[in-house]
From TrEMBL:
Keywords: ATP-binding, DNA replication, DNA-binding, Helicase, Hydrolase, Nucleotide-binding, Nucleus. It catalyses: ATP + H2O = ADP + phosphate + H(+). GO terms for molecular function: ATP binding; hydrolase activity; single-stranded DNA binding; single-stranded DNA helicase activity. Residues 295-501 form the MCM C-terminal AAA(+) ATPase domain. Acts as component of the MCM2-7 complex (MCM complex) which is the replicative helicase essential for 'once per cell cycle' DNA replication initiation and elongation in eukaryotic cells. The active ATPase sites in the MCM2-7 ring are formed through the interaction surfaces of two neighboring subunits such that a critical structure of a conserved arginine finger motif is provided in trans relative to the ATP-binding site of the Walker A box of the adjacent subunit. The six ATPase active sites, however, are likely to contribute differentially to the complex helicase activity. It comes from Polyplax serrata (Common mouse louse). Component of the MCM2-7 complex. This is DNA replication licensing factor MCM3. It comes from the Eukaryota. GO terms for cellular component: MCM complex; nucleus. Residues 661-735 are annotated as: Disordered. One of its GO terms (biological process) is mitotic DNA replication initiation. It holds the Pfam family WHD_MCM3_C.
Length: 805
């Protein structure tokens, strides 16, 4: 009896709430805002009306407070009011659907929380929670109403199902009817039954907001009907819904620990740029700074000013933060605009410190390490839900960093199998999963900033960069820039670095109290020389001069931008329309790419750090576009292209020292009194050994002619030379050709064949090429050089045609 009275009172309260909400929606005579929204909902054949809670707070604060604190009862009344209001506008449409829904937006004040601050005091409240989707279940059908037919009696039986996630009524039994009250069998009429879509998400607090050293908190989200498949792993979303606990029983007993979920009624995607507030005053500062001629150099100098040197690396990091221009062709092909950078070098050259600064500067950045990451941990994994046993898709670091930066430290410590897993991500910007019956493609459009140590622990300058790096060409070609950072012993540089490090240890943040421990998540802020007193109150965008932090040798006129301004400036650059390549920039980039492809490094002491492929051409375009973005320019000019070329030239080519110099230096240090004839004998042996090694390593006949030194003459060759000398002396026309002329002749022959790519050329073409490339030579000298090359089996002269052997 008491339960019936309580139920009647509850229904009466719901009807009263329904009238209040109906008065709120019926604003046709006033602003007509929700009248238009309801009409648009009917025209689009949708069932969810979006309501701004600020409007409800102004018109009916009592109902707004009740909705925030007792959302289930109030939400049921609000949904019934929406259906009644839709029936007043279009009765036919309202009869088609049994239930209408409400979605909310606006300001939630203290109810706006994160997964970490979501506590038990919010149970039963309407809350707004933000996070990043880490897990996502498959979409399933959930039965709402089943219809059964009894052949024996010819009657139909209908049954509705509700649970704790439903706002309508109390939870019902989960028993599915198979017989009626008289024991007659029932047949399910599937066509008359009703179902709804159901999905479970798990959102995790954003990595940049999580305290250092603590595990990130998560919360489960229940999505029904039209909210299904609105988010995927890696998306950053804002969820508004009712916070509720779901009791669980095991064998009739409970542990007292209940599962808590958020029953969503609105899901809104977030962007990293929305987290920063840019005012009109900031825009004026941006425009003023972008007009400076040295804006790119100023921005790069302001990145991690506490790190000594590495000017080119800082420029590359600035380009990485700005990004290039992403393009999607009509056939669906995506040309990535993300810039990838790899830092390889000796220990203690500030590689990891550069990564930490990017983590604090980039709007969205995910840190990871090579040893602590697996291939699926970086991309995506298929896991099993321990409660339901169903398969779920769990996002990895690169998916979570979509439209951001992934910082991978100790990149060389990863296994080859794990490194292979990120090939697709670095070029295509997507992760393709085909495991356990799940086929999906997730967005992972992120830049990669990786740091690695050389193969031997310390960079060996007497080996080529490829031997020092030890990574596959297929992976290296996906990095736009590869920098080799060396710890070179230099007295002056070492003195400056030591002074700099000592000053950093003496410097203390003005807000730091005596005895306080420096928080882990602000370490990079201190290293970026961000002055806490410079809060922008005076309107200055530059940091105040501090002799301990900046050093006494730095001029007070030198300007360094503060970190907050750099963050906003980068966000503004990325949000603008990408610049377009100009004609002169396109021509300059095209010429430089051809020069890089054809540039010969075998004849010099310079070697490449990575292969030159068509991706290098795209690298030049991306770097040029990034520099143009820093100027707020709509076009990429020749100066932007020249800066990109300078970066690529610095990163690609690395000098390789000759081992002869190393051995001679060691030999001189060990024994300076070695006799001259012994030195001569050892030097000849070393030269012969070096020549044999060089001859074995050269595969190209073109380069063989230009780079091979003359081997020591054999006995047969000496006899032949003596015979030729006697013939020339007898004829009275001796010919003498210097070694310089002979080498120039060989280089000209090699260049002629290399330019045409043919194995044979007419003699007249060769002669005309020699006249343009070499100093004037007589016919006797030319004949002598042809004879010398023919004797060495480099060329063959027959019927006025020169053949390359």
């Amino acid at each position: 009896m008491n339960e019936d009275i309580s139920n009647n009172d509850n229904q009466a309260a719901i009807r009263e709430f329904q009238r209040d909400y109906l008065d709120f929606l019926d604003d046709e005579q006033a602003s007509g805002k929700y009248y238009e929204r309801t009409k648009a909902m009917i025209e689009d054949r949708e069932r969810r009306l979006i309501v701004n809670i600020n409007d409800l707070r102004k018109k009916n604060p009592v109902r707004c407070a009740g909705l925030l604190n007792n959302c289930f009862t109030e939400l049921l009344a609000f949904q019934r009011a929406v259906k009644e209001y839709a029936a007043n506008i279009d009765p036919t449409y309202a009869r088609e659907f049994e239930e209408f829904f409400i979605g909310f937006e606006g300001n939630f004040g203290s109810k706006h929380v994160t997964p970490r601050t979501l506590t038990s005091c919010f149970l039963g409240n309407l809350i707004c929670v933000e996070g990043i989707v880490s897990k996502c279940s498959l979409s399933k059908l959930k039965i709402v109403r089943s219809v059964h037919y009894c052949p024996a009696t010819g009657k139909f039986l209908e049954r509705k199902y509700t649970d704790l996630t439903s706002a309508e009524g109390l939870p019902t039994s989960s028993v599915y009817p198979t017989k009626d009250d008289d024991g007659n069998l029932l047949e399910t009429e599937y066509g008359l039954s009703s179902y709804k879509d159901h999905q479970t998400l798990t959102i995790q607090e954003m990595p940049e907001r999580a305290p250092a050293g603590q595990l990130p908190r998560s919360v489960d989200i229940i999505c029904d009907n039209d909210l299904v498949d609105l988010a995927k792993p890696g998306d950053r979303i804002r969820v508004i819904g009712c916070y509720r606990c779901l009791p669980g029983k095991y064998g009739g007993f409970t542990s007292g620990i209940f599962r808590t979920v958020v029953i969503a009624n609105s899901i809104t995607p977030l962007t990293a740029e929305s987290e920063l507030t840019i005012s009109r005053e900031d825009m004026n500062k941006f425009k003023k700074l972008s007009k400076r001629k040295d804006v790119f150099e100023l921005l790069s100098k302001s990145l991690a000013p506490s790190i000594h040197g590495h000017d080119f690396v800082k420029k590359a990091v600035l380009c990485l933060l700005l990004g290039g221009a992403e393009k999607v062709l009509p056939n669906g092909t995506r040309l990535r605009g993300d810039i990838n950078v790899l830092l390889v070098g000796d220990p203690g050259v500030a590689k990891s410190q550069m990564l930490r600064f990017v983590l604090q500067t980039a709007p969205r950045a995910i840190p990871t390490t090579g040893r602590g990451s697996s291939g699926v941990g970086l991309t995506a994994a298929v896991t099993t839900d321990p409660e339901t046993g169903e398969r779920r898709l769990e996002a990895g670091a690169m998916v979570l960093a979509d439209r951001g930066v992934v910082c991978i430290d100790e990149f060389d410590k990863m296994s080859d199998m794990d490194r292979t897993a990120i090939h697709e991500v670095m070029e295509q910007g997507k992760v393709t999963i085909s495991k356990a019956g799940i086929h999906a493609r997730l967005n992972a459009r992120c830049s990669v900033l990786a740091a690695a140590n050389p193969v031997y622990g310390k960079y060996d300058q007497y080996k080529t960069p490829m031997e020092n790096i030890g990574l596959q060409d297929s992976l290296l070609s996906r990095f736009d820039l590869l920098f080799v950072l060396l710890d070179i012993v230099d007295t002056e540089d070492d003195k400056r670095i030591s002074d700099h490090v000592v000053r950093m240890h003496r410097y203390r943040n003005p807000t730091e109290q005596d005895g306080d421990v420096i928080p882990m998540n602000t370490g990079a802020d201190l290293l970026s020389s961000l002055d806490s007193n410079d809060d922008g109150g005076d309107g200055s965008i530059f940091e105040k001069y501090n002799p301990l932090l900046h050093g006494g040798s730095r001029s007070k006129k030198d300007q360094i931008l503060n970190m907050n301004f750099i963050k906003k400036y980068i966000v503004m650059c990325k949000s603008m329309k990408p610049p377009v390549l100009s004609e002169e920039a396109s021509q300059l980039i095209s010429e430089e790419y051809s020069r890089l492809r054809s540039q010969d490094t075998l004849n010099s002491d310079v070697a490449r750090t990575q292969p030159i492929t068509a991706r290098t051409l795209e690298t030049l375009i991306r770097l040029s576009t990034a520099r143009a973005k820093a100027r707020f320019s709509r076009t990429v000019n020749a100066e932007d292209a020249a800066t990109a070329i300078e970066l690529v030239q610095y990163a690609i080519f690395r000098k390789v020292l000759d081992k002869k110099d190393k051995k001679k230096r060691h030999r001189n240090e060990e024994d300076e009194d070695v006799e001259a004839d012994d030195d001569g004998t050892e030097e000849i042996e070393q030269r012969q050994k070096r020549q044999r090694s060089a001859q074995a390593s050269v595969d190209d006949a073109f380069e063989s002619i230009a780079s091979q030194e003359e081997p020591p003459p054999t006995l047969a060759e000496l006899r032949e030379q003596s015979r030729m000398t006697r013939q020339k002396t007898a004829s009275g026309t001796p010919v003498e050709v210097s070694k310089e002329k002979l080498k120039a002749f060989k280089d000209a022959i090699a260049k002629a064949f290399f330019s045409t790519g043919e194995q044979s050329m007419p003699l007249r073409d060769i002669l005309s090429f020699i006249k343009t490339e070499c100093s004037p030579m007589t016919q006797e000298e030319i004949d002598f050089c042809f004879k010398d090359l023919s004797d060495q089996n480099h060329i063959m002269l027959s019927d006025d045609t020169v053949f390359l052997i």
